[in-house]
Design a protein that fits this description.
It contains 20 helices and 7 strands. By secondary structure, the chain is an alpha+beta fold.
Length: 451
């Protein structure tokens, strides 16, 4: 049997059904009960062609729901599409008596919520995977005020962890010849250093000292999952403005570079939050660049420190730090402080040691570094190499991190060992310079000079 013919037939059925539903939508309103009925019909279907059409119909209804109706639908998912307690009890009783693989499998099946099978079937639809990613995006926006919906998010995360595993991801280089539809998304999704316009994008992609790579997934077409921007550099970069403007620090010939600096990593799909791509991306890009430019010695980030300025503000009310430290921190309230040389020097002597303390010693409730960027790179096996004074003097950089930026260094021979020490013991790999700064922070806490 010609499988291509069957696939085209199924697609035509889906497209005709979707067109019919769009025409009907003009004349009829829907609420969450219509979607629940559509989902029940999908679960009862036992034919592939009918399942594709029913999945497309259900997702079309979902797209038309208001935010309030989507909330009601998610609540029905939590209540009506959960696992059946009676089935779990029965399956467990059978397993307890037999303790064999057959009854164990039956117990697994009984424990699985019905909505997981629903999500699998919704995925039959054309663009079903992307529709489900956007559905989870809607769910994530509700979780803060509706924590009872968390089990649904667990189901999404469980399925997406399989659907988006490393084996399905495709690495592609993004350059000025990439289709405009993708370039537009790169502009829109850039989350670290905003891309101002097409000229700005061209500076980042078309220069010989720049590289950009993205992960794609075959089920969602030209929608990037995550991308990283790279600047080829001589030495470790310490400031982001020259990189963004291309005004200095660049190189004419990529062969002259000894460093590849990752200066922007942007996750593109909110609905895939928590699904790990970045660690795979960086490691594969390191491999790609090593093959293209074998003379490269250093693979390093130039990373922001989001949340540091907020933490500093909290320390001004913290008696742990002496009055002299808190008085110095108060100078951050002075507009344009980073343009005043004397004020710069006073703040530098205090802020860099505090930044080392913040990145190494301040932990969240899970015992991990408080800073999310530090968690990401240290968890990947990187080394906290350098804290850069006034590395980002943009309004955003001053506001979120008092202008500081950080270099995390990826040493190929050390990545696995650093990762294992971090995950097993909580050990943070860092340079001697950063450790010295951390020691100076302890002196500051005692009221001693930090120098």
């Amino acid at each position: 049997m010609n499988m291509m013919f069957l696939q085209e037939l199924f697609n035509n059925i889906t497209q005709r059904d979707a067109l019919l539903r769009r025409r009907q939508s003009v004349a009829s309103a829907v609420d969450h009960t219509h979607l629940v009925k559509a989902c029940q019909a999908l679960l009862e279907s036992d034919g592939e062609a009918s399942s594709i059409a029913l999945a497309s119909r259900a997702l079309a209804v979902y797209r038309r729901l208001s935010q309030d109706e989507k909330l009601r639908f998610f609540k029905r998912l939590a209540e009506d599409f959960a696992a059946e307690p009676e089935h779990i009890d029965s399956a467990y009783a059978a397993y307890r008596d037999a303790r064999d693989n057959r009854t164990l499998q039956q117990l697994f099946e009984a424990c699985e919520p019905l909505r997981q099978e629903l999500f699998r079937r919704l995925n039959f639809a054309s663009d079903g995977t992307y529709e489900l990613v956007n559905m989870r995006k809607d769910l994530l926006a509700l979780l803060r005020d509706q924590p009872e919906l968390a089990p649904i998010d667990d189901d999404f995360a469980h399925l997406f962890g399989s659907w988006f595993n490393r084996g399905f991801l495709m690495l592609k280089r993004i350059d000025w010849n990439t289709p405009a539809s993708i370039l537009e998304k790169i502009i829109r999704y850039e989350a670290v250093h905003e891309i101002q316009d097409w000229d700005d994008l061209r500076r980042r992609l078309d220069a010989r000292d720049r590289r950009c790579f993205a992960f794609f997934h075959p089920a969602i077409g030209d929608e990037p999952l995550i991308f990283v921007e790279v600047a080829l550099h001589k030495g470790l970069p310490s400031r982001i403005q020259p990189i963004l403007s291309g005004s200095e620090g660049g190189i004419e010939d990529p062969e002259d570079a000894d460093s590849a600096a990752f200066f922007g990593i942007s996750n593109c799909q909110t609905g895939l939050r928590g699904i790990s791509f970045g660690n795979f991306l960086i490691k594969q890009v390191v491999q790609e660049l090593s093959q293209e430019l074998p003379q490269l010695k250093y693979f390093v980030t130039l990373s922001p420190v989001p949340g540091f300025a907020q933490w500093l503000n909290e320390q001004r009310q913290n008696d742990h730090w002496p009055t002299s430290v808190r008085d110095t921190l108060a100078e951050l309230d002075t507009p344009g402080w980073h343009q005043d040389k004397q004020r710069q020097e006073r703040l530098k002597a205090t802020l860099q040691p505090l930044a080392a303390h913040y990145l190494i010693d301040e932990k969240n409730r899970h015992g991990l570094p408080l800073n999310p960027v530090a968690r990401f790179h240290l968890g990947n096996g990187a080394k906290l190499q350098r804290i850069n004074w006034l590395g980002d003097t943009s309004d955003k950089g001053i506001k979120q991190a008092a202008g500081l930026m950080v270099n995390y260094l990826y040493v190929l021979d050390d990545i696995e060992r650093n990762h294992e020490n971090y995950t097993a013991k909580g050990t943070i790999a860092c340079s001697s310079d950063v450790r010295d700064l951390a020691k100076r922070s302890r002196k500051l806490a005692k009221g001693e000079p930090a120098k």
